[in-house]
Amino acid sequence: MLTNQQTDYFRKTSNKVELITLVGMMGAGKSKFGYTVAKILNFRFYDSDNLIEKQLNTSIRELFQSHGESYFRKIEKEKIKTIVNSAIESDEKAIISLGGGAFDNQYTRDLLLKKTRVIWLNVPIEILVKRVGEGTKRPLIRGNIKKSISEILNKRVKYYSLSHHHINTYNLSQELITKRIIEIIASKN
Questions:
Q1: Residue 115 contacts by C-beta under 8 Å, 6 or more apart in sequence?
Q2: pTM of the predicted model as reported, rounded to 2 decimal places
Q3: Among 68-72, 89-93, 101-105, whose mean pLDDT is lowest?
Q4: Residue 123 belongs to a domain with what CATH number?
Q5: Would you give the end-to-end CA distance of the chain in angstroms?
Q6: Other CB atoms within 10 A of residue 72 CB
């Protein structure tokens, strides 16, 4: 994986705020890689969907069903705003994993592009379909899984492409994806 010298670099750097946001489709691995990289670099890790579920004591799917997508998106926008502002106020280094549709919101997108470094984990549709499975936990998946994911991705790609960095994960191992995220963080631009 990474040498001690590589990971020590992050522990020795100043306490300057370093916020990284991972965006991409459902099943892209944002939470998995965000948590892994945060653990390696001793950064704080925030998963916006997980924090919303804990705060409201319900699943994202249940929120969509009981209150609708617009209600969820409003809560999501506020949660992300709170995470970013809190991290900045605390001078912390953190990785933020967003739900797949959070970057669609212009306020959220502008905030993250201004205050964090945004990395898009771009995953081929065939892999997303395998990872999402039947889609029972995914509120926007209806009917044909591949068609549904393809339609959602076609709407979101214009926003994801605004990210500061893109990682095309096709044929990359988990270790290499982790390493590429860390290299982007180390590049400081």
A1: 19, 84, 88
A2: 0.86
A3: 68-72
A4: 3.40.50.300
A5: 23
A6: 22
Domain assignment present for 9: no
Structure tokens at 57: 């004591």
Strands (E), the chain: 18-23, 44-47, 93-97, 117-122, 165-168
CA distance 118 to 106: 14
Q: How many residues are given for the chain?
A: 189
Give the span between the Cα atoms of 129 and 110, in whole angstroms. 29
In a domain, 3, yes or no: no
Q: How confident is the model at residue 189 (pLDDT cuts 50, 70, 90)?
A: low
Rounded to an integer, the average pLDDT of 8-23 is 67
**Torsion-angle region of residue 42: left (phi > 0), alpha (psi -120 to 50) or beta?**
left
Alpha-helical segments (H) within 44-135:
48-56, 60-67, 69-89, 106-115, 125-132
* Residue-number span of the structural domain to which 112 is assigned: 14-187
Q: Is residue 2 part of a domain?
A: no
Q: 189 near 141, Cβ under 8 Å?
A: no
Instruction: Indicate the number of domains in the chain.
Output: 1
Q: What is the mean pLDDT of the chain?
A: 86
Distances (CA, A) of 122 to 60, 104, 134, 161: 23, 15, 21, 9
Measure the CA–CA gap between 101 and 14, rounded to whole angstroms.
Answer: 33
